[in-house]
Amino acid sequence: MAEERQRSPREIAVDEASIAMLEKADADGVENDAFSRADEQGKPCVFGTDGVCCRICHMGPCKISEYAPGVCGATVDTVAARNLLRQVAAGTSAHSDHARHLVHLLADVAQGRGGHYRISDETRLRAAARLWGIEEHDLETLECAGRLAELFTEEFRLQDGSLKTLELAPKPRQAVWKRAEIAPSGIDRTIVEAMHRTNMGVDHDYRNLIKGALKVAIADGWGGSMIATTISDILFGTPKPVKSRANLGVLEADMVNVLVHGHEPALTEMLVVASHDPEIRAAAAAVGAKGVNLAGICCTANEVLMRHGVPVAGNFLQQELAIVTGAVELMVTDVQCCMASLPEVAKCYHTKILTSNPLARNDGAEAVHFEPEQGLKCAKEILRKAIANYPHRDPKKVAIPNQQKPLVAGFSNETIFEMLGGRFRRSFRPLNDAIITGRVRGVCAVVGCTNARGKMDEYILTLTQELIARNVLVLQTGCAAVACGKAGFLTPETALEMAGPTLREVCEAVGIPPVLHMGSCVDNSRLLMAVTYIVEEGGLGADLSEAPVIGAAPEWMSEKAIAIGHYFVASGVDVVLGHPFHTMGSKNVTKLLCGELESIVGAKFHYISNPARAVEVICEHLEKKRNALGINKQVERKLLDMKDRRELHV
Fold first, then answer.
1. Kind and range of the H or E run holding 474
2. Do 232 and 292 fall into the same domain?
3. Which of 239, 244, 433, 458 has the fewest CB atoms in 10 Å of its CB?
């Protein structure tokens, strides 16, 4: 038996599958998991939590306070802002390096070196080319792809001027960025600049450092993430509504279970193809299995869920618990959010852990060499490893929870256009009209990770359920979307039962659920474009900052989430965070982030630990925006006669 937990399983998680696996982990002697490790850490270091520990140079580390600056004289304001900027740069690097690999793959496909990869959605390719200013009508498909890949490559290495991708934003927003001097040039240059200005002895002005954080975050949301989402749609298919299932119960007792985990979709796409190959099916049958069952963890799960309906085994904090089922033959990881503990947990079972990216090795895991040109061959080799491991499964250690819920995912903006306006009149008009008339009070994006310091999924579910009950349309990505999938909130019927009466009527009329799964965490770029389309449709302001929209990251934990939050605020969209950044040691930085930024970019952060209070703040914010637009005014209804109609001049 493992040591007794400080928190019981029911204090850790809300879903029964996770609770059962936490209890099983203890019974199986799994030494620790993310939750017990979090508890064992005890109270976090105050200097670290407040963001005032400085390790930039080797005259330190320095513990900074309001009364004691660092050896170099850096104050709490400088250090807190500098540390935050470095975290935003790291998060931006993660999304943008993801995008860079996809740009290379698109270029390889265009040049005939893509192996089994193809242009899956030519319509999306040509639409993207037009969006980025490429005259595509006389270009062959692969030539168009090549031109787009060249343009995207230039977005990384651009040295002067601004990213071309920024032109996708409304013109008033572009003017805000120019006026505030936060419009980024090349993605690589902007990240390097951020690291330079946070070096010892460079930028000491906390206001300037926070503007730097906004600048590098824009290079993420309107740069790297936008590019990654676009290329994934072009190469792997633009998501459309698809039925699937979520939670640990998607694992199969009589099949070879393979989990894909991480964030990059290239290998996983080939694993989907390989899992249906007759050779692979025959190999599985030869060891007594009925086939290969592919399931996902984290955002790699979201990528193949929304394009192929591959079931989701869980979100970030369930990665270890999936192994505890004893039924996973192999977990293949790529990059981001893959815990270092996975090989150690796997030692208690028969599970093999594979890493597929040279940037992301893990001590105790087997590294496989993945080359996109040989992608299908590599995928088959991985599945054969899993099949060979199936006979090593210990039946006494297998316990797959029964819990799983049906869901519908795959709501890209392209799909929403067609659902709202039809194939020939693609439009956001019905949504705008519903918001203007008050049937939908506004839109809230509920996104982000889960965090072992709190109760897994609780804040996300509470917030989502209460918002739709108050007639707020909810858009979701990443692990927050998976949390709602596990709870059944992504089943249109279930969600409609919880929705407020006017939101329900709108959703039934246009054929969308009140909670829309829009993709992985890199796909928060879809949310930026969704708000842009709402603004461009008319009637809800000229800029993103005027529309009745808001973002929320209830249980965030990653540097990527910090970058996402900053690019939403930089775009004019307020963001509610379930816990604050590590900047509370500086009153001035906190005041800037949660107040003064509104006068600079039209939005700010809100730190709210209580979900009930968060609901109130979000709804108050949406009503404030509605009042400013003048759409909350009660207009007396008048029956028009013919004379009145003539005077309308319409």
1. strand 472-476
2. no
3. 433
Q: Bridge partners of 354?
A: 332, 366
pTM above 0.90, yes or no: yes
C-alpha triplet 322, 327, 328: angle, nearest 5°: 60
- Count of positions (residues) in the chain: 650
Q: Measure the CA–CA gap between 215 and 190, rounded to whole angstroms.
A: 8
Kindly give, in sequence order, each residue whose CB lies less than 8 Å from that of residue 57, ignoring residues fewer than 6 positions away.
72, 200
- Chain centroid to CA 357: how far? 20
Reduce the secondary structure of 378-389 to three states and give it as a string. Answer: HHHHHHHHHHHH
Whether the CB-CB separation of 468 and 515 falls below 8 Å is answered with yes
Range(s) of the domain holding residue 268? 248-397
Q: Are residues 292 and 230 in the same domain?
A: no
| Interacting residues of 469 by C-beta distance below 8 A, sequence separation 6+ | 498, 499, 500
Domain at 325, CATH number: 3.40.50.2030
Is position 335 within any domain?
yes
Q: For residue 427, is it within any domain?
A: yes
pLDDT digit string (tens) for 184-223?
Answer: 999 999 999 999 999 999 999 999 999 999 999 999 999 9
Cα separation, 631 vs 539, in Å, equals 9
- Within 8 A by CB and 6+ apart from 499, the residues are 468, 469, 471, 507, 514
Tell me how far apart the alpha carbons of residues 563 and 154 are, in angstroms, rounded to a whole number: 22
- 565, 605 contact by CB (below 8 A): yes
CATH code of the domain in which 192 resides: 1.20.1270.30
Report pLDDT digits (tens) over 268-304.
999 999 999 999 999 999 999 999 999 999 999 999 9
Domain boundary among 397, 432, 460: 397
Q: Tell me whether residue 257 is in a domain.
A: yes
391 and 451 belong to one structural domain: no
pLDDT along the chain (650 residues), means of 10: 80 96 95 92 92 95 94 97 98 97 97 96 97 95 98 96 96 98 97 97 97 98 98 97 97 98 95 96 98 97 97 98 98 96 97 96 94 94 98 97 96 89 71 95 97 96 98 97 96 90 92 92 96 96 98 98 98 98 97 98 98 98 97 62 51
For residue 344, the tally of other CB atoms under 10 A from its CB is 17
User: Does some domain include residue 276?
Assistant: yes
DSSP code per residue over 423-452:
SSS--SHHHHHHHHTTSS-EEEEE-----T
Distance from chain centroid for Cα 399: 30
Same domain, 35 and 66: no
> Where does 134-246 have alpha helices with state H?
141-157, 171-180, 187-197, 206-219, 225-236
221 neighbors 564 (Cβ within 8 angstroms): yes
Same domain, 179 and 286: no
How far is 110 from 363, CA to CA, in rounded Å? 36
The tokens of 377 are what?
Answer: 């061959």
Residues 211 and 350 in one domain: no
**Using alpha carbons only, how large is the chain's radius of gyration in Å?**
25
Same domain? 178 vs 296: no
The two structure tokens encoding residue 134: 């490429």
Secondary element (H or E) of residue 476: strand 472-476
Please count the other Cβ atoms lying within 10 Å of the Cβ belonging to residue 638: 7
442-480 burial by CB neighbour count: b if 16+ within 10 A, else e?
Answer: bbbbbbbbbbbebbbbbbbbbbbbbbbebbbbbbbbbbb
Measured between alpha carbons, how far is residue 517 from residues 306, 436, 506, 520 in Å?
8, 24, 18, 9
The domain total for the chain is 4
Do 286 and 231 lie in one domain? The reply is: no
